[in-house]
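Support request, please re-run this one:
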Amino acid sequence: MNIVCLDMEGVLVPEIWIAFAEASGIPELKRTTRDEPDYNKLMNWRLSVLKEHGLGLKEIQAVIATIDPMDGAKAFLDELRSITQTIILSDTFEEFAQPLMKKLGWPTIFCNSLEVAPDGEITGFKMRCPQSKLTTVKALQSIGFDTIASGDSFNDLGMIQASKAGFLFKSTEAIKRDYPELPAFETYDELLAAIKAAL
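Re-run finished. Output below.
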């Protein structure tokens, strides 16, 4: 029994924080897990920048409402879900993901949650579990699934390497260079063909 585990941002939808950085005029918020492997460090830094600028959940959600899935993402996901079980494993947050899941036809997503004050300030975040993508893939394997995984960033490498087949998708040149053993694709057609071959 196979199950495909996909990253969300950079694979199915544009990076939320990059879109917010552009909309808010705060270029330093463009830093993502492609740049910083330590997710806790990255998120704590992001929250300090938001606090410094007096920005909260409402402002981020307003930008997310304007984000559409990447061209071809929904068709790719629909095709994939018609042939095998698929889960999106993301380090994003429920409060960010919901409108994007609606645009993608409500696929299953496992992600994290934010701690939000009554005034909308994001005061913290709650990770579902440590190394959530790798931990989830191992848990799925422990109940009889063979996993196939794909993502674009440092925080996807664990689940990709632990799966029976794993692929980089629209990743950075640096990550592709450092992990030459991982097949890397740029189009949904290529990724779909690779997943089908691995099933």
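The first strand starts at residue 2 and ends at 6. The mean pLDDT is 96.
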